Amino acid sequence: MKMPKDFIFGAASASYQVEGAWNEDGKGVSNWDVFSKIPGKTFGGTNGDVAIDHYHRYKEDIALMAEMGLESYRFSIAWTRIHPDGTSKVNQKGIEFYNNVIDECLKYGIIPFVTLYHWDLPQTLEEAGGWRNPKTVDAFVTFAETCFKAFGDRVRNWITFNETVIFCSLGYLTGAHPPGIEGDVKSYFQATHHVFVAHARAVELFKQAKYEGEIGITHVFNPAFSIDESKENKFAERHANEYSTHWYYDPILKGEYPEYVTKELEAKGLLPDMSEEDLDLLRRTAPMNDFIGLNYYCPQRVMKNDSDLVLAGGRENSTGKPGNPSFDGVYKTVMMDDKEYTKWGWEIAPDAFLEGMRMLKDRYGDIKMYITENGLGDEDPIVGEEIQDQPRIDYIESHLRAVKHAVEEGINVSGYFAWSVIDLLSWLNGYKKQYGFIYVDHNNNLARKRKQSFYWYQEIIATRAEEL
Ligand code: BGP
Predict the structure, then answer these.
(1) Peptide bond connecting 179 to the previous residue in cis, omega within 30 degrees of 0
(2) Can 373 be counted among the known catalytic residues?
(3) CATH number of the domain that residue 352 is part of
(4) Which of 17, 349, 365, 385 has the fewest Cβ atoms within 10 angstroms?
(5) Catalytic site residue 163?
């Protein structure tokens, strides 16, 4: 089978991870501009000041994407280029930059797939409380509206937020992302609620103004599976899915929070402040979501955990080594002897990916899904002139095969975006952890080179994955 004609083969990036030009052309300071410069926060002290200089080299990069046959480029907009200080004041130079990127994509027939928020919040808003402060919700809606107005004549695919669970849990539980707070469970849940409300308001605005195209949100897709069939570990599985999946997907797609979680939060005094108006907004806008974006890298293998430790996520760290398991007082994630892992300790499990998509279909029906990220973080050897990344090819191939199965089974998956189109700055792991089809030579003026996987993906797209 070939993938359907309207299935999109794409690849992704995010503003802070590629653009650089951190203080050029009127751009304001973001929370990441500040946080990444605090000693010890990122591997080797790397930051996005220059990143891979996509800001100045987008033409060359998009030409390479076109050569690869890419059908869509998912990128994000740096809020601080558009509204440098987080207010409604617009920086025309920022609008101009994204107009250029969008037009360059369209010149080659590449669909610009735009993420509004991929974690780089104006520092002014961070200092005023960030996502704990409901005013950030208003500021986001202003930012979204500016983008719809400026780019909505050409952009037809909008993602409001990337991975709420990551920037909220790493921001308020582990302190690994800005604002760098540890163990503040109340703020964690409050921040997630504000993000869902911001998403819902942007969706409603988009629909009311009758912009053409579609809008949705991208979540981490990290389905939990018990390590065995025992009752207690099966319970841990359920608990993990309620907290890490249903808490995020339900308010968007069902318009209400999972009762299992709200009851527990209420009993512990951790339920976010939410007004009737907020809840009504979530209910009313749930059916307006056109799709859900899934970022899938690995599943969670879980078992019961008797300790009374509070929630802490642990997929990412800045040590350049595998991460710590995540846990709360009920479950913990564990590594298993019979599973395969990446160098950073993320399980490679295409079967769990397919199983997870089935779980989503069971719970949320036929909502359109895009795989908005999937890929392998690795250190690619250079042999002679060639950048050899066969493990990446194997990883993507097996996951694309899972997507193909899903489509054959009637699961509504409409596109696949590899992470990442080009080697870029890993938030906490610098340039050491590579994901791209295109290599960037940091010892040679950031020169771009095609990897093995570049040619492989080119062939996959040209044949619409018929051979998989
Ligand atoms: C996702 C983010 C991406 C990217 C990816 C890989 O969570 O949306 O921006 O960073 O993970 O993560 P890492 O670079 O930490 O390996």
Answers:
(1) yes
(2) yes
(3) 3.20.20.80
(4) 385
(5) yes
